[in-house]
Amino acid sequence: MAQTDNQELASKILPDLLGKRMLVIGAGGIGKAAALMAYSLGVEIAVANRSQPKLDQLRKTLPEISTHLINAREQTSINRVLGDVKPDHIVLATGRVQGFASGSIDLAEAMDYFGDRFEPIMAIANWIASNAKKSCSFTIVSGFIGVPTMGNLAWSAVGPAIKGLVEHLAVELGPTRVNAVAPGPVVDTQMARDVVGTDEGVSAMAAALSKQLPIGRAVVVEDVARQIMMVAGDPTATGSIRFTEGGISLVPSSVIADLHMEKEGDEKN
Ligand SMILES: NC(=O)c1ccc[n+]([C@@H]2O[C@H](COP(=O)([O-])OP(=O)(O)OC[C@H]3O[C@@H](n4cnc5c(N)ncnc54)[C@H](OP(=O)(O)O)[C@@H]3O)[C@@H](O)[C@H]2O)c1
Fold first, then answer.
1. How many domains does one find in the chain?
2. The pLDDT of residue 3
3. Which residue's CA is minimally distant from atom 8 of ligand 1?
4. For ligand 1, atom 39, which residue shows the shortest CA distance?
5. 259 in a domain, yes or no?
6. CA atoms within 13 A on the CB side of 2
7. pLDDT > 70 in the chain, percent
């Protein structure tokens, strides 16, 4: 579909997007997909990232975007970039995957992980409270929010906390709309590659997910980007969590645990 057709459709279905300015923080697989999709829908795009290489790559694909270095965990850095960009929409797609199992939790590492998750959210909330144009939205790409899985204490803690934060901030920052998009495993990302370890492992994970998920295929970055557009573009969406996990939390036995077993060579029948 041509970009102008996309934009006409977007202006009808997602009226808060066309002609607006979106800042995507985090230029990894999901942030990049969100930036490209928003651009195709007629949104002016700025992307901010902790280091330069991914920003340079993105500018090769999309020379029209503005790029910014940021440390999303620092209030001064958030204030500087958001103050420069003055976004209508903010998408936070930073964060890392780390499990933590009872019995072997390194407390300092765990606190750093929680800081990595929560500091950017609170710094952005501070900025919105005192600076944002009233029409803006704030979308958080969270980790998996689902059933507890062995060895993933951090995920189990962060998911409900993000839900609580989103609901709180939706009330406190309104009329700015605050939502989260919660993916399960997204197979075409560096994060998936890092978790599983090899390209063959990622292919095996995608095949296992295709067999086990109700949707019959694995989730990819465009699926997550689409949900980001839905919540940013819908003028009534606030305080919500959009799950983009293909039904993984409905599968009776834990698909994630099975995937870890497959990584260790314990093939699923
Ligand atoms: N991929 C998945 O399977 C998956 C599943 C569920 C949830 N998620 C969540 O989705 C989000 C994005 O995932 P992804 O796959 O796109 O991750 P990714 O490829 O690892 O990208 C994360 C990006 O965020 C940047 N970043 C990290 N900390 C930062 C900070 N403090 N300030 C500024 N930039 C920072 C990184 O910069 P550098 O270039 O310097 O590294 C990187 O470009 C994360 O919250 C992740 O937990 C992902």
1. 1
2. 67
3. 143
4. 51
5. no
6. 3
7. 91
Domain extent at residue 99: 3-186+219-249
How far is residue 172 from each of residues 51, 141, 237, measured CA to CA in Å? Answer: 32, 19, 15
pLDDT of residue 164: 96
- Going from the Cα of 126 to the center of ligand 1, the distance in angstroms, rounded, reads 21
Report d(CA 116, CA 140) in Å as an integer: 13
What's the pLDDT tens digit per position in 201-244? 999 999 999 999 999 999 999 999 999 999 999 999 999 999 99
Atom of ligand 1 nearest to the CA of 95: 45
Q: pTM value? A: 0.93
Residue 204: inside a domain? no
The CATH number linked to 153 is 3.40.50.720
Q: Is residue 260 part of a domain?
A: no
pLDDT the model gives residue 269: 35
The reply to whether 213 falls in a domain is no
pLDDT at 182: 95
- The ligand 1 atom at the shortest distance from the C-alpha of residue 94 is 24
> Higher model confidence: residue 121 or residue 195?
121
**Structural contact between residues 178 and 232, judged by C-beta atoms closer than 8 angstroms:** no
**Helix (H) or strand (E) run with residue 45 in it:** strand 44-49
**How far away, in angstroms, is 136 Cα from ligand 1 center?**
22
- Tokens in use for 164? 């609580």
- The secondary structure of 206-228 as a DSSP string is HHHHHHHSTTSS-B-HHHHHHHH
Pocket of ligand 1 (CB under 6 A): 26-31, 49-51, 54, 70-73, 93-95, 97, 141, 143-144, 183, 185-186, 189-192
- Per the omega criterion (within 30 degrees of 0), is the bond before 175 cis? yes
